[in-house]
Amino acid sequence: MKENSTQKKYENNTKQSIDNFITIFVSILALVTTFGVSVSDFSFFSKVIIFSGIVVSFVIFSFVFRGKTVYTSSSNEITSKEESVEQIFNHEIEEKLLVLEEANKFFGASLKSADMFRLVSSRIKQIVEYETCALFMLTQDNNLECKYAVGKNARLFQSIKLGVDQGLVSRAFLSREVEVDSKLEIEKAFISREFLSGLRSAVSVPLLRAGEIFGVLNLYSDEKNFYESRSKILLEAISERVTPLLMSSMSFERSLSNALTDSLTNLPNERAFYLVLENQIAEAQRFQEQRELTILAIDIKDFALINDKFGHSTGDNVLAYSANLIRKQLRDMDFLARSQNDEFLVVLPTASEKVTENIIFRINSTFQKNPYMFPENDKKEIKLNFGAATFHQDGDTANELFKAAVRNKRQAKTNNGSVLLFPQQFVN
């Protein structure tokens, strides 16, 4: 195939040389004829007719012959480009691109977006080298934010947030074409030099699906002028294969999040609570008495009366308000979920009885200091009921702990709100 291509190229070049010679010969012939006629003894009228004939003949020749030459030249150029693309997409590159397509079949609907980005970025590096790879997404406030990054300065990149008119990423976002910054001149105007330390050039690749852009992939090299026409062609091909992968993983993540999230409070739901609790029980069993574990069951006092008096809309607002206040008083390691109706569940890893009491005290204190404004300026404190259960003392399984915490909460209601923290055998 390579020999045929070379032979074809040689024939085209030979033909073009002959065409150029004919063009020059005809042009000289027209000039000589014109000069001969001008110095001849022909009448003025005859000279005008001959000159007109020469002009018309030359125009016809130019349109027919030169048009053919231009067409041939264009065809040669197209052929040359096709050969160039053919050379870029060799067997090895095609195989690596095929791996990206197959990844969509196997992982598209089963990996979270962060894991998918790591997989995709590692595959891209096998095709187009980079020092840093970053994925920018459009935020709700119409900015382009780096959602994921790997490689050099990756942690710094994950804090980058740019306007849609700033940086190379915005150019690709607006033009919907691959954009190159050969010496980082564009990037340095909007991104801190500290973030770009050790990087010398960049390329932005828009990710398009059905004509809509949902993100931009940025690659950075430690060499100037690293990304050229060959890189752009490869990255366009990569974009076509990467886009469905990332979109599938994001869709999967949203579905998973919706399945484990309460839509009213945006808290994890009871299903998520059990998943986390099972994991924490496994950790507590591994370390035995070195790792304590407590859970809380919480509900809002007289919540049914709030709904009856002010309506379910106000009741929903009270739930969201309460969820926010409770969450703010928990530790970073604690896990808050909404169960059903006005009930909340909390997992407190490593929490002893004293730690649990302190957390409950903080929650009660913040509700006392922040009464809720009901309709018609009716400002009242929202009060909570608590029940606690401790691993080993109240149960060894997630279900046993949940039942014990709910039972202790109910028992606390009959004891004027006193929180029961002791083992279940002493409740009665």
Helices, strands, pairings?
Blueprint: H1 2-38, H2 44-88, H3 91-107, H4 113-125, E1 132-138, E2 143-151, H5 154-157, E3 161-163, H6 167-175, E4 179-181, E5 201-209, E6 212-221, H7 229-259, H8 270-287, E7 293-300, H9 303-310, H10 312-328, E8 335-338, E9 343-349, H11 353-369, E10 372-374, E11 378-380, E12 384-390, H12 398-413
Antiparallel strand pairs: 1-2, 1-6, 2-3, 4-5, 5-6, 7-9, 7-12, 8-9, 10-11
Helical proportion, percent range: 40-55%
**What is the CATH domain class of the largest domain?**
Alpha Beta
Give a count of the beta strands, DSSP E runs of length 2 or more: 12
Tally of discrete structural domains:
3
Order of helices and strands: HHHHEEHEHEEEHHEHHEEHEEEH
Shape: elongated
What does it look like?
With 428 residues, this protein is an alpha+beta fold. It folds into three domains: 2-88; 93-259, GAF domain (Beta-Lactamase); 270-426, Reverse transcriptase/Diguanylate cyclase domain (Alpha-Beta Plaits), CATH 3.30.70. It is 54% helix and 17% strand. It has twelve helices and twelve strands. It has helices spanning 2-38, 44-88, 91-107, 113-125, 154-157, 167-175, 229-259, 270-287, 303-310, 312-328, 353-369, 398-413, and strands at 132-138, 143-151, 161-163, 179-181, 201-209, 212-221, 293-300, 335-338, 343-349, 372-374, 378-380, 384-390. The strands form three sheets. The chain has a six-stranded antiparallel sheet, sandwiched between helices. α4 (113-125) packs antiparallel against α7 and α9 (303-310) crosses α10 (312-328). The longest helix has 45 residues, at 44-88. Residues 1-6, 70-83 and 422-428 have low confidence and may be disordered.
